[in-house]
Amino acid sequence: MPIPRLFTPVQYLPGVGPLRAQLLARLGIHRAVDLLFFFPRAYEPVAALRSVQEFAENERISFVGTIGDLDQRVTQSGKHLLGAVAQVDGGGFTRLLWYNQPYRLNELKIGQRIVATGTVRSTVLNWEMVQPQLVLLGNDEVPESQKPLPIYSLTDGLKQSSVRRMIADGLPALIDQVDEVLPAEVCELLELLSIRDALRQLHWPTDMRGADNARRRFIAQELLVLQLAIAIQRQLRDSKSSAPCCEPSGKIHSRILNRLGFMLTGDQERAIAEVGHDMNRTVPMSRLLQGDVGTGKTVVAQYAMLLCVAYGYQAALMVPTEVLAQQHDRTLRRSLASSRVRMGLLTGSLARAQRQQLLEQLAAGEIDLVIGTQALLSEEIKFKNLGLVIVDEQHRFGVEQRARLRQDGLQPHYLVLSATPIPRTIAMTALGDLDVSVIRQRPPGRGDVKTYLGCADSKESWWRFVDEQIAKGRQAYVIAPRVNDASDEEIASVEGVMLHLAKGPFSHRKLEMLHGRLPSERKEEILMRFAEGEIDILISTTVVEVGIDVPNATVMTILDADRLGLAQLHQLRGRVSRGTGLGYVCAFPSVGSDADDNQRLAAFEKTNDGFELAELDLRLRGPGDLMGTRQHGLPPLRIANLSRDALLVEQTREVARMLIAKYPGLDHPSLERLKKQVLNRYSQTLQLSDVG
Ligand code: ADP
Ligand code: MG
Questions:
Q1: Domain 250-439 maps to which CATH number in 3.50.50.60, 3.40.640.10, 3.40.50.300, 3.40.980.10?
Q2: How far is the CA of 225 from the centre of ligand 1 (A)?
């Protein structure tokens, strides 16, 4: 058989053949190199090797021995039972038993040398091990103790032992054909194994540390490729164009502050100083402003926009929903009523003619400040001199969209506002290398909310409480997950709740419904009436979740609350912590909700700290994709994890920046392979084509 090459189809590797090749294809393994890079999902640590004298009841051990007799039968309960007597090295016997594994007969022959691992127990006759794991040894092979065994993901019809064997048979010849991707200085700096050593340790680790080091090397490589892509993008951005320098001079600064209308909190002041510092440079600002719901991020955004406009540049504020766009539009118009700032509102539902007019005004520079939804990212939109882009409450906005906003010539400053506590490592990768400002303090007297957990029995008295609050001049939200009852009677719906409340406890109050299916003029009109106090109770889906600001609405009822995530619940609660009065929230779980859901709700009742809740959510639900790269429009990472591998994320960022500074465009023979990986993986999403 000729020596297999890396790109030889697996079928032609020793011990594979067409049938197994089909099974491997299901695991995404087509070529020899795919098998080489088929990462074990875990390792089975081999227990300490023992002789029979050292066996102890119910202890997990390993021993080396030779298969003697084999027998099989069907038990009374219909199970296949395979038995073997193993002669243990150093003397003595152990009986091995497997249920429902008749295929083992194929690999076990009398005289086969083995390492068996499992729990031993003593019977009247001898020692016994049920369902032991086996490593088959060659005749003269001496097993090394404590070597972990790789565990691979399988598919129906493929056995763990055969995957191990295919890899053991095929790889020695292949490994020497694999070329190093990382330059020596990077391996040295990050203390990484060479690619060949790493592959050996991955499949045949000498110990767990070896296996860990192998993984670490490949994780570092994946992260370095990502960090290089981001660093290149940043370099392109910074070199090709420059941002408008907007100095927050004393006069401009105080003129803007006068418009904001209240004393800033210390955290707001600090954030504004950071933003002002960034905008006073020709390197475009790239900043993430984090702060829990109600901490007053909008003020900082407003400051940045007015600073930008003061220097004659345009500013754009992008938000996830139309409702929120309209809300921001209203607040800003109010506070800019007597100024010369010309504002525009761009949403998907704008009539054609109006939209056309707005586009012309933007291109001609006749609009200073535009608020809009994703519609702002449309190709058609041309700005005369866009100086600042602000993105509000949009977890999905990532590097990809940012790349789309890139323009030659003038490069806008960039600010992201988020109430979701985003880990630093995500900010510096998935979101495109952002600096971070944090607001923790709430404006004085704001954000005090009492949260209760309701139950079926307490509903009536809760409605009475809501009614008392309305009698005192307050307004209320009732949140239901659905719009109507179409399919499932069990789930509360806006229309169902409306009917129930209008007939029953609130027949004397003014109720209105709000949900995403209403035309946007209608939504707008309803929100306007709610803001002006003409509606007592707004019954709504979670469309009110993001950013709506009606200070007089201080009571919220959340139905089927267990159907919502903690982050969403907390966002909702933020709606009633806007005014100066105390807010009240009551969350009712759905009928038949289980203990896990209620654990979330209990936490929601207990703490009002968004950062704490986010941590808990992470613990209860696992990292999920929220913090992943896919969420932000990048190809998913294969083995690295931005939260788990936080340290490597930071280290590879340093190394990436160092490499880019030393070898602009990664033009150096030692970086050729690495550069190819960067371009293969990210050139499209990040528009790095100019580097190629
Ligand atoms: P978020 O950070 O959730 O976007 P907002 O910017 O909407 O919060 O602010 C929440 C509320 O607090 C708004 O009603 C806003 O007018 C008010 N607010 C913001 N900053 C201050 C302040 N320094 N003093 C008093 N009220 C403030
Ligand atoms: Mg906000």
A1: 3.40.50.300
A2: 40
Backbone angles phi, psi at 380, to 5 degrees: -65, -20
* pLDDT above 60: residue 690: no
Residue whose Cα lies nearest atom 23 of ligand 1: it is 264
The alpha carbon of 297 and the centre of ligand 1 are apart by a number of angstroms equal to 7
**Concatenated DSSP letters of 125-174:** SSEEEES-EEEEE-TT--PPTTPPEEE----TT--HHHHHHHHHHHHHHH
Q: How far is the CA of 337 from the centre of ligand 2 (A)?
A: 21
- Residue 478's SS3 state is strand
From atom 17 of ligand 1, which residue's Cα is the shortest distance away? 296
Q: 679 CA to middle of ligand 1, Å?
A: 43
For ligand 1, atom 26, which residue shows the shortest CA distance?
A: 443
Average pLDDT over every residue of 508-517? 92
Please report, for residues 23, 100, 158, the alpha-carbon distance to residue 20 in angstroms, rounded to integers and kept in the order given.
Answer: 5, 22, 8
295 CA → ligand 1 middle, Å: 6
Q: Which of 106, 116, 60 is nearest to 86 (CA)?
A: 116
CATH superfamily of domain region 47-146: Nucleic acid-binding proteins (2.40.50.140)
Q: How confident is the model at residue 626 (pLDDT cuts 50, 70, 90)?
A: very low
Ligand 1 site residues, Cβ closer than 6 angstroms: 262-265, 268, 291, 293-299, 419, 443, 446, 547, 549, 551, 574, 578
Q: Which positions ≥6 away from 103 have C-beta within 8 Å?
A: 159
Higher pLDDT, 65 or 491: 65
Write down the domain spans for the chain: 1-46+155-178, 47-146, 250-439, 449-607
pLDDT at position 692: 46
6 DSSP assignment: T
Ligand 1 atom with least separation from CA of 264: 23
Distance 393 CA to ligand 2 centre (A): 7
Percentage of the chain with pLDDT > 90?
A: 45
Residue, of 24 and 141, whose pLDDT is higher: 24
Burial of 636 (0-12, 13-18, 19+ CB in 10 A): exposed
Residues 643/627, Cβ–Cβ less than 8 Å = yes
Q: Tell which residue, 362, 360, 357, 367, has the closest CA to residue 336.
A: 367
CATH topology identical between 250-439 and 449-607:
yes
Distance CA 498, CA 479 (A): 11
The Å distance, Cα 535 to ligand 2 centre, comes to 23
pTM for this entry: 0.68
What angle, rounded to 10 degrees, do the helices at 208-240 and 195-203 form?
140
Least confident of 25-34, 237-246, 452-461, 646-655: 237-246
CATH of 449-607, one of 1.10.3720.10, 3.30.420.10, 3.40.50.300, 3.40.50.2000: 3.40.50.300
Mean pLDDT value of segment 396-421: 74
Q: Which residue's alpha carbon is nearest to atom 24 within ligand 1?
A: 443
Sign of the C-alpha dihedral, residues 568, 570, 571, 573?
positive
Ligand nearest to the CA of 295: 1
Report which bound ligand comes closest to the CA of 575: 1
How does pLDDT run across 286-301, given as a tens digit for each residue? 899 998 877 899 999 9
Greater pLDDT, 284 or 45: 284
Both tokens assigned to 36: 């080489």
Average pLDDT, the chain: 86
Atom 20, ligand 1: which residue's CA is nearest?
296
In testing the pocket of ligand 1, which one of 289, 552, 578 has its CB within 8 Å of the most ligand atoms? Answer: 578
- Give the chain's radius of gyration (CA, Å): 32
